[in-house]
Amino acid sequence: MAVSIYGVANDANIEASSASESSYYYHIVAVAATSGGSVSLSGVANATNIEASPASESSYYYHIVAVAATSGGSVSLSGVANATNIEASPASESSYYYHIVAVAATSGGSVSLSGVASATNIEASPASESSYYHHIVAVAATSGGSVSLSGVANATNIEASSAS
User: Fold this and answer.
1) Are strands 49-51 and 38-44 parallel, antiparallel or unpaired?
2) pLDDT single digits (tens) 51-92
3) Up-side HSE of residue 94: CA atoms within 13 Å toward CB?
4) Reported pTM
5) Domain residue spans in the chain?
6) pLDDT tens digits for 86-127?
7) Which residues are CB-contacts of 60 (< 8 A; sequence separation ≥ 6)?
8) In whole angstroms, what separates CA 126 from the centre of its chain?
9) Nearest-5° Cα angle at 94, 93 to 100
10) Which of 79, 87, 33 is nearest to 55 (CA)?
C-alpha cells in the first residue's frame, strides 16, 4: 500500500478505523500539514500516523509532524518545513507504533529512510544547541537498510544510538 500527499492544506486527514471498522478504513491514518512539499509512505503497516503539531508546539514542530509504523516499507519526506517529526510510540505502545522514530529539520532538502530498524532517530537540535547542531542531528539504528539525507543544512550529524 502506498500513500502520497503533496501540497495539501493544513489538517488534511486520512485515517484508519478502529479494529471494529476495519472494513471501512483498512491500513493507514494520516494527517498532514505541508508547505509546498510532499509526504510519501510506501508499504506501511496499520495505524501509520502523520499529524500536524498543536499550536502550542508551533515553534518546535513547524509545519508537520509524522508518526509512521512501517512493515518493510519506507518513509520519504521531501521539501518539508523545519522540525518535521516522525516518531515511534514508547515500548508500552509498541503494538500501535512499530518500527521507526525520526525527527528531521530540513532546509529545502529531503529525508529518506528505507528498511530501517526500530528506534531509528533523526532529530533537530534544540534552539539552545543551535551553534552545535545547526539544523539537523540524526541517530540511526539500521538493519541492512539505509538512511539518506539530501540537501539538508550544514552540521548534519548521523550517529549510532547507544543501547540505552
Assistant:
1) unpaired
2) 433 334 333 223 333 333 333 344 554 433 333 344 433 333
3) 5
4) 0.33
5) 2-159
6) 443 333 333 332 223 333 333 444 455 444 333 334 443 333
7) 53, 83
8) 17
9) 115
10) 33
Distances (CA, A) of 160 to 27, 70, 111, 125, 147: 31, 20, 17, 16, 12
- Grid cell digits, residue 71: 512493515
Whole-number Å distance between alpha carbons of 99 and 107: 26
Burial class of 49 by CB neighbour count within 10 A (0 to 12, 13 to 18, 19+) = buried
Q: With contact defined as beta carbons under 8 Å apart, do 47 and 27 qualify?
A: no
Rounded Cα gap, residues 61 and 78, in angstroms: 16
Letter for the amino acid at 27? H
User: For the chain, how are helix, strand and coil distributed in percent, rounded to 5?
Assistant: 5, 40, 50
Q: How many other C-beta atoms can be found within 10 angstroms of the C-beta atom of residue 15?
A: 14
Three-class SS string for 110-136?
A: EEEEEEECCCEEEECCCHHHCCCCCCC
Stated as kind and residue range, the H or E segment containing 6 is strand 2-6
